[in-house]
Amino acid sequence: MWNGANCISINRASTDDENPYTKSEVMHHYLFGYDLPDTIIILTKEGKCVVLAAKKKIEFLESAQGKENGSIVELTLLLRDKSDDNAANFEDMLKVAKGKSNGENVKVGIIMKEHKSNGSLKEGSIVGGWEKKLGEASSKVDLVDITAGISMVMSAKDESELDLMKKSSVLSNKVLKHGFIPRIESVIDEGLKTTHERLAQEVDETIEDPSKINLKVQKETVQSCYFPIVQSGGKYDFKVSAQSNSDTVKYDVITVSLGARYQYYCSNIARTLLVDPPKQVSAMYELLLGMFEACLKVMVPGNPLKTVYGAAVKYLKAEGKEDLVSSLPKNLGFSMGLDFRDPLLQLNSKCTVPFRQGMVFNLAVSLSGLKLSEAARSTVNNKSAVKDLSEYGLLIADMVQVTNNSPDVLTKYGKTLTDISYTINDDDDADESDDDDGDARLAKKIAKEEELQPSGGRRSGRLAANASSAQETEGAAERERKQIELMARKNEERLRELARASKKKGGDEKTKKAEELEAYKRTKDLPDNILPNQVKVDMANQCVILPICGNPVPFHISTIKNVVLPDPDSASYLRINFYTAGMAVGKDAPENTVKLVQKYAPYATFIREMTFRSLDSHSLTTAFRQISELRKRARTKELQDQEEANLVKQDKLVRTKNERVPRLSDLTMRPVFAGRKTQGNLEAHTNGLRFISTRGEIVDVMYTNVKHAIFQPCENEIMVLVHFHLKNPIMIGKKKQQDIQFFTEVVDASQAVDAGKRSMYDPDEMDDEQRERQLRKRLNEAFRDFCRKVESVARKNGYSLEFDIPYRDLGFNGNPHKEMVFIQPTLNCLCNLTETPFFVVDLSNVDHVHFERVTFMSKAFDMVLINKDFSKQPWRVDMIPNDDKDSIQEWLTDMEISYTEGPMNLNWKQIMATVEGDDRFYMDTEEDEVTPKEAGWEFLRMFGKDDQDSAESEDDDSGYSENTGEEESEEEEEEEEEEDFDSEDDSESDYDADEDLEEQGMDWDEMEREAAADDRRRKRDGGDEEARPSPKRKNRRR
Predict the structure, then answer these.
(1) Which of 303, 322, 372, 613 could tie 307 with a disulfide, CB 3.0–4.6 Å?
(2) Coil, helix or strand at residue 823
(3) b vs e for 919-940, b when ≥16 Cβ sit within 10 Å of the residue's Cβ?
(4) Is residue 756 pLDDT above 90, yes or no?
(5) Are 939 and 1037 in contact (CB under 8 A)?
(6) InterPro entries per the record (predicted)?
(7) Closest CA to 824 of 815, 812, 841
(8) Which own/partner pairs from 219-223 qualify as long-range (CB within 8 Å, at least 24 positions apart)?
(9) CA 377, CA 388: separation in Å to the nearest integer?
(10) Which one-letter DSSP state was computed for residue 218?
(11) For the segment 113-124, what is each residue's pLDDT rounded down to a tens digit?
């Protein structure tokens, strides 16, 4: 490593701006923290150190004299002497270098590469004279290269160096995240034209001045490691020496590499951004990502550096991509620190140097020269720049610290496909053929319709600008046709689902048998202090001992329906009623008691009631009080057992250690603990989230138990929130909860109510509004950033968690509980999260949607969302404005949820009971499998399926109107008369269905208009009836 050198000579020549990473300059930063040009340092094995430099540099080093410690035992400072061109100084230095050589040649270690390039140094320089002296034969010196030794010494960093490396890596990460990514997104979004060189220049300026991205870092401590590299359009060079060219940025495969230097410690990061990527490119990127992870796993102490390259090759072969080995670069990274790139410590196929703890590498995996097939290009939109891309490359680079455990990635910016992929040109034809998922189509539809997307998700401004021309509006008739097809398909799917469910269910219901009651196992266990004619309550065994013919008989408390103590007269009475067969047991009856009554009802004799009389009112009053208390306890325990019956045991939270935990502070949780406002902090750990209140209460939400996570930014609401809809309920306080929410109020609720008296010209009010807008923006960004970090933590630990954001443009007002609220759909739910109780409907549990009170006379309608579990009552949203009906129905069609509509409110409790007991509900025939019937929810249609079919057949036959005759014209007249009659009947039924609602709250003007319209209708109906015979009414299902 040191080539047998007796001493080393670090010859620092003058500063070279073209190469700031010379080994001698790096050594000066390592030893002094400064660069001292034209300086010579001699270090011997005995611990002697000699420095020859100019006056100011010697003065700088004088403070170190007399403080020698460690391996340096003697420090000698020699001042440059121009009178003899340092001849005396060189002799002294040569004497120290030779030591006790006894006239033999001495090996002096130098940095050989710099020694060869120092030959052109100007006359009079210290380094030039010293190297000339070493080259003289009389000096008896053999020069050897010690570059490898210096590299090994500096490769393993101490704690202070590692801290600087982390800060440098954070700087590179921040510049990419807050500098380049927003800039390139705006360029893509707005369709701007800019060059690679211009983008690289902007990134370089951001590194040199971090205040542009709100980083409070002193300018003099940071600089760019190299001029950033931005490439696209099929021309890719992943060497460190590559340059950004002056070509215009193409929106296809864009790569960016940048490096920041903090207090001379270097870092580097590189990412590939995919715009409108075909499946071939996305799959290749996923392969590259897997190769990156495979390389990362072998970067542990003890392994040779070449194992990284071997891991990449092994991974490609295991994935059946052996042909891509030739697309790998010659090395997959290098050691970094004060030196940007150490050529002796590279992650290539030959380096045998082992990894050591404290080493820091830049792991840069790439695939270049990849061919994009014509078939892959044909799948993208014609407007996409990918159409012109025939060859591309992919690159990922991160800073990695070698530790005793697993390697630590210091540059944290996301590199998954969702983090780096953009879609600005949708191919509608490809979507219809390749993607039948309703959720995906809805997401694309929303992306087209939204001109602004405050959620922070990526969008396309060009797409939004062209949305009005690209979007085709579908009429009600087209939606109806789609709905008929959708319902037929859904009926078949539900039949298969129910068949699978019944097969899995098996005989589970039969195993739930009644449990026999047992207060005492034998008569000896009865209390000893029982009197023959006394009503005794045994609280411990939950039974009441009643005297029957002088014998104590125990009755379990669950058999007692109620107990009555009438007002005493000459004597006191106590009446005890029991649960018996042949009468209603009531909803408060214990479940086990109901089963026992049903079990023994056919053959057992039941005691209905017992009355006891006593002259001593005290004893019966005491018994009444104790029985009532015992019934209350038993009821409370049963309710608690029911609450906890379907609780699933949650995993224990694994807290994150040795790294920063994502946290949101000063949040309020809903629901609250014990009726008190619950405030605290929310943290994201390894396998779940933990909320710790200011009173020490803890709520853990496991990632595996989160069914839907929703982030709702503050726009028109008074709060910004994150909401978790759970798969299995958890206990909060004494109640079972399936929805948990954490929020921060932006505007105080009382202030929001009083906001009506503000003046728009009041300067104070304007300042308040400005501060409120800034607070909204800051809180939205904080919550959004927290959600991203939670997703990243979950993904890092092998969990899947993604936050949905409500689509405000699709929202509508309605009444799901007892007040009007704003209801918004997400990708998976229909929800209102601002008001309590929460309204969250999982769309995967919705079987069908029915619209009630849909008439021309009404101003609002109701929406009923039917659960796939027929044992549960449907969800309702009442009083939805008529203006929202078309948009809701279009959204339901896009989500592939069937719907029907009708003019009146239905008795859903009765309907659901009937449907639950119908085994052939989704079939289109009766039990004889011959007689046709309406399948599924088709019976709810205002106009049946047959009407639609007949209308279509009429349209189809319209082309053959030449064969019309007298008989055909008569049939057409009869059909027209029947349709007129039906339309009259429809209008009357619509009017009747909504008559009560319309009469409430009508003023005089409305009543007069109503009466005039009624007179006109009666006059018209009377005239029509006189003009034509009354037709027979068709039997038609509504």
Answers:
(1) 303
(2) strand
(3) eebbbbeeeeeeeeeebbbbeb
(4) no
(5) yes
(6) Creatin/AminoP/Spt16_N, Creatinase/aminopeptidase-like, FACT-SPT16_Nlobe, Fact-SPT16_PH, FACT_SPT16_C, FACT_SPT16_M, Pept_M24, PH-like_dom_sf
(7) 812
(8) 221/262, 221/263, 222/171, 222/260, 222/261, 222/262, 223/260, 223/261
(9) 8
(10) -
(11) 777 666 555 566
Distance CA 662, CA 664 (A): 7
pLDDT one-digit tens code per residue, 392-431: 999 999 999 999 888 999 999 989 888 888 888 764 444 4
Q: How many CA atoms lie less than 13 Å away from 585 in the CB half-sphere? A: 19
CA 361 from chain center: how many Å? 31
- Write out pLDDT tens, residues 375-399: 888 888 888 888 889 999 999 999 9
Q: In whole angstroms, what is the distance from residue 926 CA to residue 942 CA?
A: 22
Q: How many whole angstroms separate alpha carbon 820 and alpha carbon 834?
A: 12
Strand order of the β-sheet with 663-673 is 698-702, 688-693, 676-684, 663-673, 735-745, 719-732, 706-712, 803-804
For residue 830 the two structure tokens come to: 């229909």
Return the exposure string of 836-858: e unless at least 16 CB atoms fall within 10 Å of the residue's CB, then b. Answer: eebbbbebeebbbbbbbbbbebb
Q: Would you list the DSSP string of 843-892?
A: GGGEEEEEEES--SS-SEEEEEEEESSTTSPPEEEEEEEGGGHHHHHHHH
Q: Take residue 672 and report the two structure tokens written for it.
A: 């609250």
Evaluate whether 358 touches 165 at the Cβ level (below 8 Å): no
Yes or no: say if 664 and 786 are a contact pair by the CB < 8 Å rule: yes
Task: Scan for tokens 């007298």, then name that residue.
Answer: 966
Q: How many other C-beta atoms are found inside a 10 Å radius of the C-beta of residue 644? A: 11
Can you give 108-129 as a three-state secondary structure string?
EEECHHHHHHHHHCCCCCHHHH
Instruction: Tell me the per-residue pLDDT of 489-540, one tens digit each, with 9 for 90 and over.
Output: 888 888 877 777 766 555 444 446 778 888 888 888 888 888 888 888 888 8
CB of 289 within 8 A of CB of 297? no
Note whether 69 and 111 are within 8 A (CB): no
Q: How confident is the model at residue 860 (pLDDT cuts 50, 70, 90)?
A: very high
Of 731, 728, 711, nearest in space to 664 by CA: 711
Instruction: Report the predicted TM-score, pTM, of the whole model to 2 decimal places.
Output: 0.49
**Measured between alpha carbons, how far apart are the two ends of the chain, in Å?**
93
229 forms bridges with which residues in the sheet? 257
The C-alpha atoms of residue 377 and residue 928 are separated, in whole angstroms, by 55
How far from 110 is each of 2, 6, 31, 41, 1018, CA to CA, in Å? 10, 11, 16, 11, 113
Give me the torsion for CA of 407, 412, 417, 421, rounded to 10°. Answer: -150
Task: State the pLDDT at residue 758.
Answer: 55
Collapse the DSSP code of 747 into the 3-class scheme (helix H, G, I; strand E, B; otherwise coil) and give the result.
Answer: coil
> Helices in 601-707 by DSSP H: which ranges?
617-645
* Amino acid present at 424: I
Q: Which two tokens stand for residue 417?
A: 């496909």
Q: Which residues pair with 613 in a beta bridge?
A: 573
DSSP element (H, E) containing 915: helix 908-916
Distance (Å, whole) CA 659 – CA 657 = 6
Q: Residue 252: which region, alpha, beta or left (left: phi > 0; alpha: psi -120 to 50)?
A: alpha
CB 739 within 8 A of CB 726: yes
Q: How far is CA 357 from the centre of its chain?
A: 34
Q: Is 533 helix (H, G, I), strand (E, B) or coil?
A: coil
Q: Which two tokens stand for residue 654?
A: 């694994």
Q: How many CA atoms lie within 13 A of 815 on its CB side?
A: 10
- The neighbour count for residue 747, using CB atoms within 10 Å, is 17
CA distance 104 to 370: 59
Q: 185 by DSSP, 3-state: which?
A: helix
- Which whole-number Å values give the CA distances from 60 to 42, 56, 65, 263, 978, in the listed order? 17, 6, 11, 19, 109
